[in-house]
Amino acid sequence: MANYWLLLSASGTGKYAGHTGYADEVASTYQWDETVAHATSVAVGDVVLIRDGEGLLGISVIDSISEWHDYKLTLRCPVCNTPKLTFRTRKVPRYRCTRPSCRSEFEEPVTGTPIVRKFASEHGAGWLPLPGLMDRAELQKLCVARLSIQSMRPLVPERVEHALGGFVEQMFRLHGGKVQDTALRRSARVRTAPAEERQRLLDRFGSTCLFVGTSPRATLDAAALSRFDAAGESKSKDFALLRRDVRSLLDLGQLTVEPECDRIVVRGEARDFRPYIELDGAPLQLPLSSGQREWFGQHWRLHSV
Ligand SMILES: [Zn+2]
User: Which domain of life is it from (predicted)?
Assistant: First the structure.
């Protein structure tokens, strides 16, 4: 079950207009570290509502979370060592400790740079910008704990869906379409297979390019025809020997294989050159495995639009 989160974009407080590139950043990634409440509860598939100090900026769903270690600058009270300080722009001394038993005021906090786990979400595919749709008070009503001041706050899914209704669905539709498109594009790329795979193909089929037949060994690449599912996981890998020019033209979509009949179709600039014109309509040199056929089917779908 996906969780819903309200995330405060730190860089958004009050300087939204002046920070170029900031809107793009909010639309694709959110960063936090392990010292934040709920740091390790946020997960792939969770719905995020991102806000700044004023109100909602947009909604999305998390596709991945990366994790690394980094230094974090910390500021502490020189008297009681708490990190809970307020910074005052108009008063001196500029810092005040918020601990009720301390309340010290000082100009220079104690600084430290401990190493912390940091996290960054990737949520660009589903991003639906909704700036100004809900203000701070309206967003607060969607939270599990309404009076919390945490930067990552759990939301009540039913309240979000009630308040945003169609927008949540719209975001998921947008996301689904983009993710499928990305999976198709990733799948339809020809990658280089490991050297031992090339040797295995040469032993099995001789120096035969799947498209043009017998060719000098030095011109033959072993291609990995990998398929990925929508989550970006590798579903399967098939291999084929391809002459280098064939491989390049496949990547450009100038060579494709028509499904059903397994015949070569030549498009684009390749049609200006006799050797490739002669390939148009020709059968492949070897029968396709079912995995290879599925890969060429995806490749065809991507390049025949
Ligand atoms: Zn203190």
Answer: Bacteria
